[in-house]
Structure formats: C-alpha cells, structure tokens
Amino acid sequence: MRRYVIEDTRHVPPFNQPASQLTIGTRPLNIHQEDLFQDVLPRLLPRAQRNISLGGTLRHVDEMTTIQDAAIVYRNNLWFDAEFLTTFLRAAIASKRACRASIPGDDAAFRTYTLPLTNFEPVQDGQGKQYYLLDLWYFPNGYTPDVQPIVVDSDAQEMGFYSVPDFMTMEQGSLTHYAPGRAVISIESWVHVYYASIIFSLFARASRFDRYVRTHNFRSLELLWRALIEQTQLLSTSAVVTVGKNTRIHPTAVITGPAAIGDNCNIGPGVFIDNCTIGDNVTIDDGCCLMMSSIANNCFMPFRAALYLTAVMENTIVAQNTCLQMCVIGRNSFVGAGNTFTDFNLIEQRPIRAADINGTLREVGQVVLGSAIGHNCRIGSGMVMFPGRMIESDVVMVAAPQRRVISRNVTFEESDHHFIGGKSANHTRFYPRQDEEEDVITRTGW
C-alpha cells in the first residue's frame, strides 16, 4: 500500500505558512497525518498489504492518473481524527472499489465547523440528499475515474458548555458546541486551526469519554476504585489524567480530565487545568488557569496567565495576567503581560467574521470567537484585542495611547519595529507572504 500526498502550498493567514506546517494541538499537521496512517492502516489491511510507503507528492489532483497500485491519496491540508479515517477506510476496503470520503450536508457538527470559510461544492445523491466531497481517496488497484463516495457522519452530540444571559446567545438557551465522534476539517483559516485543536480534539475527547463511561459499567467501577486508591476525585485519577516522564506537579495544583501532560513539564502551585492537552517541556507557573486549551512543546506561562478554549503553538510565552479566549497563537511568539483578547462583539451583536484563505472576511457562524497571532510576533503589555482580528507573523506591537485597543487586522508593514528604535531596531522576518516568497525565488533563483 502506498500513500500519496497532494501538496497544498497556499498560505494560511495570519501565519504565512501552508496548513501542513501548522501545529494542530501539539503536533504539526503533516506529522499528525503520517502518524495516523501508520497507526490505522495496519489494523485494517490484510497482512500482505501492511507495508505502507510514501508513493510520492502530487501537485494537482490530475496527477492521480499515474497511480498504478493500491493507494491512499489525500490533500495535506486535511485534518482528520483516527475515528473518521478508520470509518472511511473500513467502508472503502470492504467495498473493494475506488472510494472518496465525503460528509453529509445536514450534519450539525460539519455544517457548523467544517464548512464555514471554505469553498466546498455540494453534490446530491439519487435521493436528493446533499453531501460534500473531500480530498481523501482509496484506490485498491490503482487509479480509476469511477469513484464511489463514502459518506461519513460526525456522530456528534450537542454539549451546552455554559449558560449565559440570553442577550449573549442572541436566542433562548445556552451556548453550545457539537462534540463529534468522528471529525474532519480542511485547514484554510486560523479559525479551522482553533476548531481542529479545541472542538474536534478536546471537546470530542471529553464526549467520547463520557459516552464510554455511561455505556460501560466496569469502566465506571474502575474510575471509582482508582479514586479510592489514589485519594482523589474521579476526574483527577490516573485513568483520566495522563502525565509524562519527569513531569513535576505541585501538590496544590488541580488537574481534571480527560487531560494529557507531556514529558519534562513543570506545573506550579495553585495551577488549575481542565480538559487540556499539554506538550513536552512546558512550564506553567503559579496561579495559571487553563480550561479546554492545548499548549504545544516548549511553551512558558508565568504566574496568573489564563487560557480559555485557546491553542498555543510551540516555543511561545504567554505572560502574567494575560487572558486569551478562543484564540490561536503561533509559534515562537511572545504575548506580554496584562493583555486581554475578547471574544464577544459588544455593539454589533451578530455572528463574528474572520478571514478565509484569500483574506476575504466571511461570517464564521459563531457569536463568540477570539483572535489569532501569527508566528514570531512580539506583543507588548496592556492591550485589548477585538474578536476575529489577526496579527500577521513577524509583527512587533508596543502599547501606545493611540493603539491600545486593536480593532482591525495588523499587517507586517504596520509592525512597530519599522518605526521605533531607529537603526538599532532588529526583528528578523521569518514568515513572508506567499507572493513575496515567490518574488524572492524569481529574483534569486533560490
């Protein structure tokens, strides 16, 4: 069995990188895909086909016509979890035909998270039901144009994650999310990074855990037994909270699961962690509060920083007294002390808009949503960020009377290092835009 990758080179704003190089949760997307295939395929394929090798990289869908052996083909900006991939491949292999993954148009989770800010075209089956084709194929005997769609639903359940006054929901009831049992999304915006890292990963993990405990009595008894032995609450036992090697956790820290903490981490006194995924070599100091968030490798959070439904990529610092809500922070960035990233429009109470992969503002369909910071950014102290805004990679921002409230997107050309510090200002740009990269290659040949 060979694995072919269709390369998507488009840059995702504000990171100025292709989706395959962005960190989703604690791993880059391309590593996540490779690991999933190596884990899922051997369990589904006959023994003779379990040797999985990379067949090559394709630049366009049309190049699939050259495939002559059994193959899996996918676009490298597509994020999917093990449950979605397993369901699709099991049905495809059983059919013994060339198949393509698709999702139903009436699925609540996919309609809410996967479809916004993308350009999927709907297709109708013989019964008039609508579905959307994904760039994920299975060919048992080489390429053939006769491809059968395999429709995979999300098996989602609605979760009311908190109750708020009606004016904030713009309707009666609670703010809700759909926690999928199977998830897939095309990464074309920072919003998709947020959905994949938080909703499709952490919410989905919690939902699967709840379902499993409700339907397996022995699992419930195991949790109760561990709580008695370990002298802790049910959701803080080692069956629910996994901790890596050489990680130190202060006795006063409170951690509730499901949660995963990597190797060589340091969790300080008074820290609260709820349903989070934390990578390796992460330091979380006194009094920090992390709820339903993901922290990638080598990050540092000084005292009293707060993250709520936020994804932070590797090698990033979030300083003290800063509050991030429903945000995505790029790698190698610094967010200074006392910043607040808001998630609710106070004046225009309508769904928030965010930029798609072409930079066009479109409605996300969410009434609450935070903001995004690119890679290699340096954000000063004491700023307020409006919902849905972006700060482009390599930007330096210093608080000033005329710019403490960030009400619009900030580009690299507006970075303060161009105007402050004179000749002594030095901030290397590592993430140019795609058209600028192509211009450099044209001029230099590199």
What does this structure look like?
The chain has an eight-stranded parallel beta sheet. Strands 18-21-24-27-30-33-38-41 form an eight-stranded parallel beta sheet, with no helix packed on it. The chain is 21% helix and 28% strand. With 446 residues, the chain is α/β, with parallel strands linked by helices. The model is unreliable at 440-446 (pLDDT under 50). The longest helix has 26 residues, at 190-215. The radius of gyration is 23 Å and the shape is globular. It has two domains: 2-203, Alpha-Beta Complex (Spore Coat Polysaccharide Biosynthesis Protein SpsA, Chain A), CATH 3.90.550; 218-444, UDP N-Acetylglucosamine Acyltransferase, domain 1.
List keywords for this structure.
single chain, 446 residues, alpha/beta, Spore Coat Polysaccharide Biosynthesis Protein SpsA, Chain A, UDP N-Acetylglucosamine Acyltransferase, domain 1, 2 domains, 8-stranded parallel beta sheet, 7 helices
Describe, in short, the structure shown.
The chain has seven helices and 41 strands. With 446 residues, it is of the alpha/beta class.
Layout: helices, strands, pairs:
Blueprint: E1 2-6, E2 11-12, E3 17-18, E4 23-24, E5 27-28, H1 29-44, E6 53-58, E7 71-75, E8 78-80, H2 82-95, E9 99-104, H3 108-114, E10 122-124, E11 130-139, E12 148-151, E13 157-162, H4 166-169, E14 175-179, E15 184-186, H5 190-215, H6 217-230, E16 241-243, E17 248-249, E18 254-256, E19 259-261, E20 266-267, E21 272-274, E22 277-278, E23 283-284, E24 289-291, E25 294-295, E26 300-301, E27 306-308, E28 311-312, E29 317-318, E30 323-325, E31 328-329, E32 334-335, E33 340-341, E34 353-355, E35 361-363, E36 372-373, E37 378-379, E38 384-385, E39 390-391, E40 396-397, E41 405-406, H7 434-444
Parallel strand pairs: 1-6, 1-7, 9-12, 16-19, 17-20, 18-21, 19-22, 20-23, 21-24, 22-25, 23-26, 24-27, 25-28, 27-30, 28-31, 29-32, 30-33, 31-36, 32-37, 33-38, 36-39, 37-40, 38-41
Antiparallel strand pairs: 2-3, 4-5, 7-11, 8-15, 9-11, 10-11, 13-14, 34-35
Helix pairs in contact: 1-2, 5-6
